[in-house]
User: Fold these one by one.
Assistant:
Number 1:
Amino acid sequence: MPKDAPPNGSAWPDQVPLGPGRRVSEMQAKLHRWAAADPGRRFEDLFNFVHDPATLQVAFDRVAGNRGGRTAGVDGVTAADVQERIGLSGFLDDLRTQLKTGAFRPLPVRERLIPKPGRAGKVRRLGIPVIADRVVQAALKLVLEPIFEAGFLPVSYGFRPRRRAQDAIAEIQHMGTHGYRWVLDADIAACFDDIDHAALMDRVRDRIKDKKVLALIKAFLKAGIMTELGERQDTPAGTPQGGIISPLLANIALSVLDEHLHGPWRPGGVFSSPKRRTTLRAKGAATWRIVRYADDFVVLVNGSEEHVHQVREKIAQVLAPMGLRLSSAKTRIVHMSEGFDFLGFHIQWRRKRGTNTWHVYTFIAKDPIRRLKAKIRALTRKTSPLNLDALLAQLNRVMGGWAFYFQHAIAKRVFANLDAFTWWRLARLLRQRHRWSWKEFRRRHTTPTGRWLPFSANGVTWRGIEKIPVTRYRYRGARIPSPWVQPAH
């Protein structure tokens, strides 16, 4: 599940510790402030920020701290190898020298095909860059993200700081409650593979004037792919999933969609006030709102089904110059009373039990439940080689992370059912492993008063998810704060 932003309401540190992190944070705050103050400004002299020692140090720390840092690219080198065998100081100095002299050249990314859950024969193609390329991409992102974030619109939530999937779901629920009940549930076909490089670079040039930075971005786009069969392939289009800078580039490309559909909501636009929206609808026109998470998005329409078809045609026209198209298999028009799935949630407008009032409710979709059960079955199969303590710890991690993602949906009964499912799987595993009868198993796992004891081993206890609090997520709208506030000295 997505993990690109912290949970709703979590605390952020007011101050950044002294050192490279503080220096980079101050640089980002200035860039963001300048970009927000002058939307038409094109930035020069950014390349010095990219190869600054502090930027490269912070970039490497982020690469090494990411789980992907343990995965090697085509050169077979991991982040741990850099620290233990090559030496971090020498590695960063050499990388900085290559950037300054213009000798740096990205290597092809290593292709890895990942099966798509629940879709037999379908795979997702990931590209794994070498560690040096990942560090440079992370440095580029540190410099570019504050600039482009100043222009990104609040209806986009994927791969953006301090934003998460729950914010997108909360906006859908909020707009559905206020009459937006026709839904274009859309998906862009092979978005990361098909983005037109020329169109993308044109949008980057709208804000970036530094030729060295532009050349570096283009070099990563054209780096190529080393397939699993060891064949080199060119990349005439797209930005391979797996690259650190790829989500930012995808958001830059797809912001054209946000700007087109959200434009009427801007100050002075035809949707900018409740009175204007009401007047439009009284004349038979429709109003709409896009909610986007990376290449998955929905358009909520307050109007008729015919209006949704018209919006769909507009979207196809906007995406075409970027080399993109809507997926015919995954794009559909539904009324919110039918319900639809988005980011793992099932959203539906339905009557409240025992009343005649209707509300928009958020449930857990069937696919995430089915996939979690499959993971639990794999962990608790009778032939599992894991010791009980390791097994329980793994279950706590898998189930806990899943439940915290979905804890803002109507999930209490689902959590209880999953706990019961897991309990019986563990009971079956232990009985098989120790050849216990039901009577012997019950004797070992109950108190003298007959109460069941929790499964535990070597200090590790299976916690389950039923007791995780289910709370409503607060709709934050445009109130999500920027992460680039000038640090206090």
Note: The first helix runs from residue 20 to 37.
Number 2:
Amino acid sequence: MPQLGLLHGRVWASLLGKLLRPPGAVCIGAVHSHSQVAEAVLVSQLKPHQEKSNFIIKTPKGTRDLTPQQMVVREKILDLVVSCFKRHGAKGLDTPAFELKEVLTEKYGEDSGLIYDLQDQGGELLSLRYDLTVPFARYLAMNKVKKMKRYHVGKVWRRESPTIVQGRYREFCQCDFDIAGQFDPMIPDAECLKIMCEILSGLQLGDFLIKVNDRRILDGMFAVCGVPESKFHTICSSIDKLGKMSWKDVRHEMVAKKGLAPEVADRIGDYVQCHGGVSLVEQMFQDPRLSQNKQALEGLGDLKLLFEYVTLFGIAEKISFDLSLARGLDYYTGVVYEAVLLPTPAQAEEEPLNVGSVAAGGRYDGLVGMFDPKGHKVPCVGLSIGVERIFSIVEQKMKTFGEKIRTTETQVFVASPQKNFLQERLKLIAELWDAGIKAELLYKNNPKLLTQLHYCENMGIPLVVIVGEQELKEGVIKLRSVASREEVAIKRENLVAEIQKRLSES
């Protein structure tokens, strides 16, 4: 350790000498100096053990560890989600956890301040990915892909308060499904809504509703209400908070903080508090102000077509046209949607607003073109499943009903009632592993039989194979059912077949 202190002094002396040189000399050795600065900082952080300050061992704010029990629940959710994506013909894709900073800049509107920037590494300015959509658009443009149906499961990072709602973190997992390519209107969009319904129904979270709107309708609404075009994005961001805030609070934000005229805010209020089915779409076609706007009419026309397709898919009763739905991200260009769980009667008394958003998405036809040198566009539509939110709900339900979770998938335990049978147990378990059977044993030479059986009961292992002196003499193995405690003798050569038969029947 004394040598470290000496090195520390030498490095800073060297740095000080370089700083006192003429500017040209400093520039010539810039790269070398940079590495020395990094070394100096590292060395300065290395202290003798006795000087080490006390600190609390914890995960960083907005992150968490997942226990084996939680991982079982999480993997079941992800398996259901991914199997649905594959059922609809999606290919898997992965992208780096961080991107060039400029790739992410100006893609998320007011939320851009939540992007995690990384320290300059290797001459590149980098940021952790904020979502999976922008990296997908970058991938399409970079590889000149014009058509693709893909799914992606991965972590994203957002520098926001993790305590806003349950299931919201700074590091979290997203499950995305996207369809890229030029197709006839609303067919891919309707499939995305169908996928959301399949996943939410399969997870059995309770009743849900998918709100839909169109950014062209919103922009048209802003225009006819008198919102200056320069304020479209920022007002859209305020409207997007209506699921979490009352109209009164949203109106106050638009007027007091964003400088919108009160009468304009009131006109917006007449629209954003409307929601319904296809009849509301028809009603908006007849609206004296909205029907005069070309953008709004295009959006209404597509929504009418969307309702026709979701009716054919048998999910129309789950879809609601909601003029308050904005989806504040800047890259959306057309249809947007968001799935919310509906509160039970008991929850409704405590929570007047919805239980929470569990899936969302929309159309983003201009995003790929932002990365293409020639500006060539690839129309895209997609959805994202809120895994963390869903996980919190499922976990809470399991606690409420006291469900016990198996943390392993072990099917068979290899045991012995006598000493000096480790070699026989090892030969037997190797035979089971080679046959593709999930098996375990205790890592002791001479474990007690009762200890082995208790382990099986605690871990929920269904079958035990027992080998001892008598079994060796007779050329058999005892097969025991943990639940019923019934035992049968099976010929050694027939053991694997018998176990596979029982497992297939269970």
Note: The chain has a mean pLDDT of 87.
Number 3:
Amino acid sequence: MAKMSASSVQATVWAVSKRKLQPTWAALALTPSAVNKIKQLLKDKPEHVGVKVGVRTRGCNGLSYTLEYTKTKGDSDEVIQDGVRVFIEKKAQLTLLGTERDYVEDELSSEFVFNNPNIKGTCGCGESFNI
């Protein structure tokens, strides 16, 4: 029996054939309207590298989305779409899975809207949700 030194490592590699890849949801998808609005907002703030999306516990139903400018990447997940950098806080990643972010303007308001297929309920004020 041959002796192995402490620094050597053995590994076996198996070829995998006919493996079917499963599609996965992006953590967050941006609509063209959202991309354009973020670009417009960041143009006036050259010291910021993107925007950060998160969730906070508040409101009468549980969670609420947050959106803020950020100067650093940090440990968060990054979504890059059409040159826009969006960072996702670690604790928000699972709650945002599959969410589409849009920017909507009408005669009375303009706002970012999160279309999340995983939401099970929202509060009456429209400020919070539960998953």
Note: DSSP finds two helices and nine strands in the chain.
